[in-house]
Sequence to fold (147 residues):
Amino acid sequence: MGRKKWVKPLIIVAAAVLVFFGLCFAVSRLNMHEAALEANWGLSLPGNMKEVYYSQSEQGFQGDGYRYTVFQLNDANTPFLKGASNQKSSDVEDKVTQIIIETEAAKAQYPNFSHHYLWKTISKYDDTLYIIFDPEKSLVFFVEKLI
Fold:
């Protein structure tokens, strides 16, 4: 009789622990791409960004490949955009477009280079990050080339 008394509370506690860890895992997956950008590129991203699209190419054995992430960003006055250029660059547009093509992203998710945008590049070893901010749509595009 004493054993049966503890079985039900034990099952309830085990279920609660599983639900807790499941929720923690789900929340961490929501911020995974943002956290990777911060860790890999030393960026400080605002907490109010919302991921709206993600695509990546096949990754090589050493993690090489291409990644493309789009976030909703309502404020251009963020530290990671400091020093961004407001001059159009056909070279940057071409390189960004080629990388996005490699990720097989939907064309509807491409940056619109026909109007004003801000851009910035960060290089680390042989890897390159292109950051494009579209103030008209309040979207920021992170385009990674990982070698």
